[in-house]
Design goal:
18% helix; 175 residues; 11 strands; alpha+beta; 4-stranded antiparallel beta sheet; Jelly Rolls; globular
């Protein structure tokens, strides 16, 4: 199946706990995803930008002091490579992320991005996730790190009664 090739690892119980604890402690930081009033496919839900980069991958701001264990986990995944954009996104019941690709982001278009990863926490079975026109078995990717197919069409529909949390982080390669 399509998603088998992009599953990087299942998170340990302690990693899941660290991520959830830091999210809970920093819940006042949730804001609209678009920081510059650009239209975005993430019209529903809210985001916490842990590290934001401009379109040339220059770091604009970060909140690592609030998310030290998350930072440590991400660095353990990408090793000596450099983190680009990093953000949590949450979808409440009934929220959607519109069908889109990330292929037109300037640093994706220019080939500067090595990988875009996503971490999914406890996905309810009624959440619909589609990559490249293929419905993903959410039980297979819950509490997992995915090497995300950002150039393929993807969308999310939260048809559940629980909140969907996903962490997006970019690996821009070696310094």
């Amino acid at each position: 199946m399509y998603y088998d090739s992009i599953l990087i690892k299942k998170l340990s119980l302690i990693e899941i706990t660290y991520l959830k604890d830091e999210l809970e402690m920093n819940s006042p930081l949730w804001k609209q995803h678009a920081t510059d009033l650009k239209l975005t496919s993430l019209k529903d839900g809210k985001s916490i930008h842990l590290q934001w980069c401009d379109d040339k991958l220059n770091i604009v701001t970060d909140k690592w002091e609030y998310f030290p264990k998350t930072h440590q986990l991400l660095k353990s995944i990408i090793g000596d490579n450099v983190l680009g954009r990093v953000y949590w996104h949450r979808l409440l019941p009934g929220d959607e992320i519109n069908a889109h690709t990330d292929a037109n982001i300037p640093f994706v278009k220019s080939g500067e991005l090595k990988h875009r990863y996503q971490i999914y926490l406890e996905i309810d079975k009624n959440v619909k996730i589609v990559f490249n026109k293929q419905l993903i078995d959410v039980e297979r990717i819950t509490n997992s790190v995915i090497d995300f197919p950002l150039k393929s069409m993807h969308y999310y529909i939260n048809n559940s009664n629980s909140t969907l949390y996903l962490l997006v982080f970019d690996d821009i390669g070696t310094p």
